[in-house]
Amino acid sequence: MLFDDLKPKDTIASVLVPVAVPVAYTYKVPAGQSVVPGTIVRVPLGTREVIGAVWDGEPDAAIDPNKLKSISHVYGTTPPLDKDLRRFVDWVAGWTLGAPGMVVRMVLRSEEALEPEAPVPGVRRIEGVEPERMTPARRRVLETMEDGFAWTKSGLAHAAGVSASVIDGLVQQEVLEIVSMPAAPPPPRPQIDYAQKDLTPAQQAAAEKLSESFDKGAAVTLIDGVTGSGKTEVYFEAIAETLRRDKQALVLLPEIALTEQFLRRFEQRFGVYPAEWHSEITPKNRARVWRGVASGDVRVVIGARSSLFLPFKELGLIIVDEEHDAAFKQDDRVPYSARDMAVVRGHISRFPVVLASATPSIESRVNAEQGRYGLVELPDRASGAALPDLSAIDMRLDGPEQGRWLAPGLVGAIKETYANGDQALLFLNRRGYAPLTLCRTCGHRFQCPHCSTWLVEHRFQKKLVCHHCGHNERVPESCPSCQSTNTLVACGPGVERIAEEVSDLFPQARTLVLSSDLPGGPERLKREMKVVEEGGADIIIGTQLVAKGHNFPKLKLVGVVDADLGLAHGDPRAAEKTFQLLAQVTGRAGRVAGGGKGFLQTYSADHPVIKALLSNDKHAFYQAEIEARRAAGLPPFGRLAAVVISGPDRNFAEGFARQLARVAPPDQAVTLLGPAEAALAMVRGRYRFRLLAMAPKQYDLQSYIRGWLSSGPKPTKGLRVQIDIDPQHF
Ligand code: ADP
Ligand code: ZN
Ligand code: ZN
């Protein structure tokens, strides 16, 4: 090696930087500094500086040292990413065919976390010194400080009920001294035996089975329990067991709006709130949680899918609640399934993973039935309440009059529920007022200029909005095509329109729309969820947001406005997804006290999904669905990968996709479909074409795709090629 004499090995290092290249880059280590694999560093990259991590593997010693750039900063107070986490990052990169640097970026989510928080000034009592003159205010201050701890000035003034000048006076007299104290004390630890509920025998048995899995190391267990069966209480015991073993626990939830209620339940069980991790927390808290997780001060995190990449010091359990939920799949950048990657993280570090759902994914159900996962079933509600009684309203026979969306049968049931002082929920998975606006005179339809979708009218905001790119425009006075006025009509209902109908029918009732896009954001949503929980609303109109894990004790009736909505898709997962969504949302009714009812408004009462829901025969539905997948060689019995080509020029993108398809290496095991226009043919001004590769279960599809794409044409002129292993939609 040419430069070996000039440069001992440990003066250069491999660093993963957050760019889409398959390898680590080599940097010089500044004199007097030392790094190990996992050390977090800042390095120059092109014209900027980026955060990266020193990685395993030899740096490239063949590069002329004069051409190497130096690491500009070593984050010496942050623990290096440990070996398990580095293996996990490499594994995720290998599985998703993403760049390891882009995966490590998901670990280094908080730049502020990398330096310790500056200490803040505080005051402390000097032993034995008394003030020259004792006043009532001074006495209160000294009494407040009897515990001997340091206080911030403002905290002390507040606690003692005095003005800051009283404290300044005591400092001047040297009764108190200025000290520096940590910006935030470590959070209090969860108490394992704070308040355990008496578990039902079924819950008890389930909790014991989970405990047993702890001694097996990397065991995965599926809790398949009906809505209200008390799955949360069961996995709380698994968390308690983890804490007993001095390990950290992570709970993944699909929706932030749910965390509020979950946090309170956790507090009731363990006496403290867990740490939260999702996109809505402030940068400061984000940094504290990140550091706390790395130092071990934070014992339990509840978070969105991104919390899977936190640098836990000693993680010992992951729970994936509502494991069937599509929100666990990240679709952009590095497409990955947090549920599947949670299983991988548990496997690498040899700890148990628990998946919980009332309507498990077909994948997890098959894994459990084939014995790869443990299976715990909870067929009854914890309260003993019966599951809701479901019926269909055939919209062909018993539908509403023109211009209305709620059938008389459903309206009657709402009336009865309202009269009894109970809550009713109307579910429609469509935000806004109307999904399509058209001109009655010329037929003009309002389409998004950047996406192949109609604009959705939002009447609260007086706007037409694209739900894919956010484009929005005011509802015009006249038709932009034929200039007629008063000819625009709203077609079909969204939740806002249902709310309008409800207000019309029940002017006295307290109605509430729960939808993620209303002004006020997540804060308002959390408040309103609480209002519903406490019985402060009579009729709730909601999107899929309300279908998820929330507990509304007073809810007795669920009306599904359009049960056919999800079935219309040509997607083979449509049946599974619709069954899950409708079972979940109707399962909100009568969870605690029983007597719940559900109505499905449908034009296809004979559809297998609708029939399975009505007969409450979940097992028959799953068996039929599993057999259909097996027969077609679809996941989980076969493997799929999507290659999506997108670009600003339609012909160019399509041509490239065809070219790529032509050079695919022939392989008996691989079936290549497409290119075809993606389900959404254009998004944000980019045309999208999709190739789908299918292969048998044991086949190494990643290797095939890697070989294919590396030998194929390279994307140019703004084209992008994105690989999605196990796409949600196939
Ligand atoms: P799931 O997550 O299975 O839908 P939850 O854990 O949310 O069910 O429980 C449903 C309801 O039953 C909650 O209100 C919960 O407090 C209550 N519950 C669960 N287990 C018990 C128990 N053993 N004793 C009393 N109440 C329980
Ligand atoms: Zn017109
Ligand atoms: Zn758009």
UniProtKB/TrEMBL annotation:
<dbReference type="Pfam" id="PF18074">
    <property type="entry name" value="PriA_C"/>
</dbReference>
<feature type="binding site">
    <location>
        <position position="439"/>
    </location>
    <ligand>
        <name>Zn(2+) 1</name>
    </ligand>
</feature>
<keyword id="KW-0413">Isomerase</keyword>
<keyword id="KW-0378">Hydrolase</keyword>
<dbReference type="GO" id="GO:0016887">
    <property type="term" value="F:ATP hydrolysis activity"/>
</dbReference>
<keyword id="KW-0238">DNA-binding</keyword>
<dbReference type="GO" id="GO:0006270">
    <property type="term" value="P:DNA replication initiation"/>
</dbReference>
<keyword id="KW-0639">Primosome</keyword>
<keyword id="KW-0479">Metal-binding</keyword>
<dbReference type="Pfam" id="PF18319">
    <property type="entry name" value="Zn_ribbon_PriA"/>
</dbReference>
<feature type="binding site">
    <location>
        <position position="466"/>
    </location>
    <ligand>
        <name>Zn(2+) 2</name>
    </ligand>
</feature>
<dbReference type="InterPro" id="IPR027417">
    <property type="entry name" value="P-loop_NTPase"/>
</dbReference>
<feature type="binding site">
    <location>
        <position position="451"/>
    </location>
    <ligand>
        <name>Zn(2+) 2</name>
    </ligand>
</feature>
<feature type="binding site">
    <location>
        <position position="442"/>
    </location>
    <ligand>
        <name>Zn(2+) 1</name>
    </ligand>
</feature>
<dbReference type="InterPro" id="IPR040498">
    <property type="entry name" value="PriA_CRR"/>
</dbReference>
<feature type="domain" description="Helicase ATP-binding">
    <location>
        <begin position="212"/>
        <end position="378"/>
    </location>
</feature>
<dbReference type="GO" id="GO:0043138">
    <property type="term" value="F:3'-5' DNA helicase activity"/>
</dbReference>
<dbReference type="InterPro" id="IPR005259">
    <property type="entry name" value="PriA"/>
</dbReference>
<dbReference type="InterPro" id="IPR001650">
    <property type="entry name" value="Helicase_C-like"/>
</dbReference>
<keyword id="KW-0547">Nucleotide-binding</keyword>
<dbReference type="InterPro" id="IPR041222">
    <property type="entry name" value="PriA_3primeBD"/>
</dbReference>
<comment type="subunit">
    <text>Component of the replication restart primosome.</text>
</comment>
<dbReference type="InterPro" id="IPR011545">
    <property type="entry name" value="DEAD/DEAH_box_helicase_dom"/>
</dbReference>
<dbReference type="GO" id="GO:0006269">
    <property type="term" value="P:DNA replication, synthesis of primer"/>
</dbReference>
<dbReference type="GO" id="GO:0005524">
    <property type="term" value="F:ATP binding"/>
</dbReference>
<dbReference type="Pfam" id="PF17764">
    <property type="entry name" value="PriA_3primeBD"/>
</dbReference>
<feature type="binding site">
    <location>
        <position position="482"/>
    </location>
    <ligand>
        <name>Zn(2+) 1</name>
    </ligand>
</feature>
<keyword id="KW-0862">Zinc</keyword>
<protein>
    <recommendedName>
        <fullName>Replication restart protein PriA</fullName>
        <ecNumber>5.6.2.4</ecNumber>
    </recommendedName>
</protein>
<dbReference type="GO" id="GO:1990077">
    <property type="term" value="C:primosome complex"/>
</dbReference>
<dbReference type="GO" id="GO:0006310">
    <property type="term" value="P:DNA recombination"/>
</dbReference>
<keyword id="KW-0235">DNA replication</keyword>
<dbReference type="InterPro" id="IPR014001">
    <property type="entry name" value="Helicase_ATP-bd"/>
</dbReference>
<dbReference type="InterPro" id="IPR041236">
    <property type="entry name" value="PriA_C"/>
</dbReference>
<feature type="binding site">
    <location>
        <position position="448"/>
    </location>
    <ligand>
        <name>Zn(2+) 2</name>
    </ligand>
</feature>
<comment type="similarity">
    <text>Belongs to the helicase family. PriA subfamily.</text>
</comment>
<dbReference type="GO" id="GO:0008270">
    <property type="term" value="F:zinc ion binding"/>
</dbReference>
<feature type="binding site">
    <location>
        <position position="479"/>
    </location>
    <ligand>
        <name>Zn(2+) 1</name>
    </ligand>
</feature>
<dbReference type="Pfam" id="PF00270">
    <property type="entry name" value="DEAD"/>
</dbReference>
<comment type="function">
    <text>Initiates the restart of stalled replication forks, which reloads the replicative helicase on sites other than the origin of replication. Recognizes and binds to abandoned replication forks and remodels them to uncover a helicase loading site. Promotes assembly of the primosome at these replication forks.</text>
</comment>
<keyword id="KW-0347">Helicase</keyword>
<dbReference type="GO" id="GO:0003677">
    <property type="term" value="F:DNA binding"/>
</dbReference>
